[in-house]
Amino acid sequence: MGTTTAQRVRRIKPSPSTAAAQRVRELKAQGLAVLDLTVGEPDFDTPDHVKAAAIEAIRQGETKYTPVSGTPALRAAIKHKLAERHGLSCSDDRITVGGGAKQVIFLALMATLDADDEVIIPAPYWVSYPDMVLANDGTPVVVDCPEADGFKLTPQRLEASITDRTRWVILNTPGNPTGAAYTVDELRELAEVLLAHPHVQVLTDEIYDEIWYEPGQVPSLATAEPRLTDRVFLTNGVSKSYAMTGWRIGYGVGSPSLVAAINTLQSQISSCPSSISQAAAAAALTGDQAFVRECVAVYRSRRDVTLKLINDIRGLSCTPPSGGFYAFVNCADVLGKQTPTGEVIGTDEEFTRYLLESQQVAVIHGGAYGTPGYFRISFATSTDVLTEACERIARACAALY
Ligand code: PLP
Known about the structure:
By secondary structure, the chain is an alpha/beta fold. 41% of the residues lie in helices and 14% in strands. Pyridoxal-5'-phosphate binds at residues 40, 100-102, 126, 172, 176, 205, 207, 237, 239, 245, 250.
């Protein structure tokens, strides 16, 4: 007899991006030349000075448990970033460090949700939020944020979604999968609503903050409305900005009571993240930032090429992302059409399957992000692959009738 799993496991599903990546691997193993636009991590290598810091940490014997809330060096590096980017000065008891932003977000929910507490999740959303809420006994309250609203939560929709049971609102800016980001004014409008509901906290996921295509820096709620400081939990990490997805370091900045609760959980779950990865992350945050600028320049040119090609395809359109490395493409106009073999493309998922089977282009359907009628392209691949993939997508669309 197999293991009887707990209800919390039965409530959740594995990440659709992981499932898509697995499908691509299977097709490649069958010898098919699949162009993979599903990837959710940078295609660059971790910078050498970051690797060198990790090697030095090993040489220096920094190979033991660290404080639960992270090494002093990493906390100092995070404070450095908060001061530089947000003008925030922040005490140690406001910072927690974990095994990726994903783990920090999970622990924040675990530390605060009781059964049936609600978490407002604007859609399109990062695939993990609803399942993380469900795994922690909460109820995801998904709020549709249409393209006409820039894929962003409006104050009206926020107000209408808040109940006595609301514990959190999650704001991912710039967002995965859309690349949409809130302006300072938009954040202040949301803050006005939140100020009237003191029981609601806001988790801002700013993991793509450095991958930014607009002038200046992406605004953050933590600084846009100082009256919310104690109710905002800002999460970030080094995975995307420094091509360090495998090092597993993320952090959260919030009220001392929340941070203490997260640290209590972490002390019983993992004790601390890897000491070596923490040394590497500290070097990434305090060292030369040229790497980030170079990556953003490359992502920007890939974004521009992809957008031009996609927007030239009849039936598809895409709002330019302000940050991140994804394009969220509207495919509503191709739904209802027929493939050359006579099958009707009824949904975004069927369209992405058609792209994979007829042209060997792998993308992720919008339904995975709570927003059917779209699909996500990742620019974390070369311009040649992106160009070839867009040409194949154009061929697939032209063959529909
Ligand atoms: N938040 C968003 C919006 C993401 O897209 C991802 C990764 O895909 C994460 C968080 C997780 O980041 P980390 O590698 O730090 O766990």
